[in-house]
Task: inverse folding
């Protein structure tokens, strides 16, 4: 399934819900055991059949050899009395053709083989549709459900998504008629429909299905084929869907409703017993409190999130949690406290040998100092982040850290640059120094970052680097007078 999309909460909190749970062992139909030639798929197999049956072929067999495999499948269904299966198969083939026509030439489905041209899929449909029809006649709805679910699980390729969803919907309708299993199949059907609705963007409808799944599985010992308890699955899906709903509420500035929904999500995470899920739920709830202006509550819950991520050695989670703490403290004007807190984060990362967290801690500290105007300290932390990223051999992370270093250096330069421009009104030689530095980017004017200017050296370097060739006395005088008398504002525009 495609990843779920968040607009306010960080995308890293939620991942794709994954595939549908494996509630039954994947069953494939056995080779079709027919003694009649009309179910043989290709000419080589037909020739082999004829060689073994020297007596010749009947008129029926000769006709079957001329027919398509789909037509022969349909004929056999009708001969055996499976009229409902025949109608359903034709409906699915027609639906595929309609989807293809609607997509038009150039689309992905246009270049795919049609359903009637794929014998293996026709085999599966023939086998499970006829078995489901026979079970329905006998009133064994649990068998009808199992056969429909087997088809839904079989069509798991992206191009067959519509077929999979169709049989999940059919199995959902059938599950409502099953009464002998205590609601187990009904619970399975609800979670499958919840996942389909979530994928299609119907979040509220998905939440209703997941809540029903939770109610049906509460207190039961049921487990899927991987050994995961149904109750844990229900908690996992409800945590995710509540987080999605809260994200939409936060986007609409419905902070109190989002907080209530995220409290429910945290409850589901705790009940599910997944520590990672609990950490993420606490983190999201703290952000909602922060957005609503309840900063102290947000910090309290964030500390719980930090403790959980620390116990799990979850570098990504720790980085997000500490970043949120620093942001909240900074918004309250507690920059010093934020620096102290992030310093603890860096020490914890070093002691636990969490290299990724060490990069995150240095970047966060660098950002705080950068916002406070402490550019030297910011550059130091960004440089440490860069070195830690290089040790991880993570090129994208190195590039990110280096970009922060570049920004810090630029801010350092702007401090000295602006001071020279401000001084140029009283002493034009400061502006000459900057122009000389702009021309050569060398240390002719001393390092601009230090703020130390040698006016005589700067003036001499400027005239040497800027006077045109074949100059005369009048040209030189014109150049000198223009730069001395022009206002600093004009000079600054020229620099840009």
Result:
């Amino acid at each position: 399934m495609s990843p779920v999309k968040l607009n306010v909460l960080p995308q890293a909190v939620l991942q794709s819900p994954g595939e549908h749970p494996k509630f039954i062992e994947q069953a494939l139909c056995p080779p079709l055991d027919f003694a009649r030639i009309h179910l043989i798929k290709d000419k080589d197999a037909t020739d082999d059949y004829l060689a073994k049956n020297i007596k010749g072929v009947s008129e029926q067999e000769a006709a079957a050899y001329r027919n398509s495999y789909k037509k022969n499948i349909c004929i056999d269904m009708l001969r055996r009395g499976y009229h409902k299966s025949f109608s359903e198969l034709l409906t699915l083939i027609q639906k595929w053709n309609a989807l293809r026509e609607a997509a038009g030439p150039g689309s992905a489905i246009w270049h795919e083989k049609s359903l009637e041209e794929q014998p293996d899929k026709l085999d599966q449909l023939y086998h499970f549709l006829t078995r489901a029809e026979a079970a329905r006649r006998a009133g064994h709805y649990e068998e009808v459900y199992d056969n429909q679910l087997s088809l839904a699980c079989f069509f798991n390729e992206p191009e067959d998504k519509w077929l999979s969803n169709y049989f999940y919907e059919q199995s959902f309708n059938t599950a409502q008629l099953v009464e002998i299993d205590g609601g187990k199949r009904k619970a399975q059907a609800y979670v499958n429909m919840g996942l389909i609705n979530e994928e299609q963007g119907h979040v509220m409808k998905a939440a209703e299905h997941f809540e029903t799944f939770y109610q049906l599985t509460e207190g039961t010992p049921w487990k899927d084929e991987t050994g995961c308890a149904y109750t844990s699955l229900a908690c996992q899906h409800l945590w995710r869907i509540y987080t999605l709903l809260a994200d939409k509420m936060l986007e609409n500035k419905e902070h109190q409703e989002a907080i209530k929904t995220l409290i429910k999500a945290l409850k589901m995470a705790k009940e599910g017993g997944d520590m990672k899920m609990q950490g993420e739920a606490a983190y999201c709830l703290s952000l909602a409190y922060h957005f609503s202006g309840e900063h102290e509550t947000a910090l309290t819950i964030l500390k719980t999130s930090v403790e959980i991520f620390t116990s799990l050695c979850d570098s990504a989670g720790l980085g997000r949690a500490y970043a949120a703490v620093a942001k909240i403290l900074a918004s309250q004007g507690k920059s010093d406290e934020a620096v102290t807190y992030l310093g603890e984060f860096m020490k914890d990362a070093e002691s636990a040998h969490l290299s990724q967290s060490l990069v995150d801690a240095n970047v966060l500290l660098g950002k705080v100092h950068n916002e406070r105007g402490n550019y030297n300290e910011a550059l130091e932390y960004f440089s440490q982040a860069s070195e830690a990223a290089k040790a991880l051999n993570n090129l994208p992370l190195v590039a990110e850290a280096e970009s922060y270093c570049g920004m810090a250096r630029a801010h350092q330069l702007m401090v000295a640059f602006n001071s020279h421009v401000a001084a140029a009104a009283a002493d034009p030689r400061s502006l000459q120094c900057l122009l000389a530095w702009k021309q050569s980017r060398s240390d002719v004017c001393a390092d601009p970052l230090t703020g130390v200017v040698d006016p005589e050296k700067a003036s001499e370097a400027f005239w040497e680097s800027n006077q045109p060739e074949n100059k005369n006395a009048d040209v030189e005088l014109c150049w000198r007078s223009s730069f001395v008398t022009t206002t600093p504002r004009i000079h600054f525009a020229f620099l840009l």
